[in-house]
Amino acid sequence: MQRARSGNVFDPRTGLPAAPRWDLVSVTSPSSALAEALSTAFCLMDRQGIELALAKAPQARLAGLKAQA
Predict the structure, then answer these.
(1) Does residue 56 lie in a domain region?
(2) How far is CA 32 from CA 7, 12, 60, 68, 69, in A?
(3) Is 36 a domain residue?
(4) Domain count for the chain
(5) What is the pLDDT of residue 1?
(6) Cβ–Cβ under 8 Å, residues 61 and 27
(7) What pLDDT is recorded for position 68?
(8) Over the Cα atoms of the chain, what is R_g?
(9) Per-residue pLDDT of the chain in tens (69 residues, 90 and over written 9)
(10) pLDDT of residue 52
(11) Could you give the angle at the alpha carbon of 44 between the alpha carbons of 27 and 32, nearest 5°?
(12) Any domain includes 4
């Protein structure tokens, strides 16, 4: 029997593991807490949403984004 893979990002509406849009999201920032929060949120956002969020956090930079294969 195969076990279902469980992630560490959860859908706040259901409390269940969320299916990420991206295989890799990397954010840099002088604040590690901000980088962690943004990279986690970006896992579920489309590219336009990511760009809008980055515009509100000019100290953060998207260092890597890899689409799911």
Answers:
(1) yes
(2) 21, 23, 10, 25, 28
(3) yes
(4) 1
(5) 44
(6) yes
(7) 81
(8) 13
(9) 444 555 678 887 888 888 888 999 999 999 999 999 999 999 989 999 999 999 999 999 999 999 887
(10) 98
(11) 25
(12) no
Q: What distance in Å separates the CA atoms of residue 9 and residue 58, rounded to the nearest whole number?
A: 24
3-state secondary structure labels for all residues of 35-46: HHHHHHHHCCCC
Please identify which residue in the block is written with the tokens 């893979």.
5
Q: Which range of residues forms the domain containing residue 26?
A: 22-67
Hey, what amino acid is at 68? Q
Q: Tell me whether residue 5 is in a domain.
A: no
Q: 3-state SS string over the chain?
A: CCCCCCCCCECCCCCCECCCCEEEEEEECCCHHHHHHHHHHHCCCCHHHHHHHHHCCCCCEEEEEEECC
Which residue is associated with the tokens 């509100």? Answer: 56
